[in-house]
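Data deposition worksheet. Section B asks for the primary sequence of the deposited chain exactly as it was used as input, without tags or linkers unless they were present during the calculation. Section C holds the resulting structure in token form. Section D is free text for depositor observations; keep each observation to a single sentence. Incomplete worksheets are returned to the depositor.
Section A, Depositor: J.P.
Section B:
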Amino acid sequence: MRFDKVYGKIGAGFIEVHRLRPVSRPVDSADPVKELIPLCSNCHRMIHRRSPALSVAELRECLDLRGAAKSDGAAI
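Section C:
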């Protein structure tokens, strides 16, 4: 999702990130390149609908099964 296309200027440059390591398991140092995944807000919420959270691969599989990733331009 391109937030700027939906929300205009206020959405430019916006994205949420998903932590691969839950916040409840802190570490002294984290590598944001390896441990943070950019996701649109809807995808981020869907990942956290289950406990433990879905993996990005599981969410992608859900979208692929429904054809959603192709029809709405989802970028995960």
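Section D:
The beta strands are 16-19, 36-39.
The chain has a mean pLDDT of 84.
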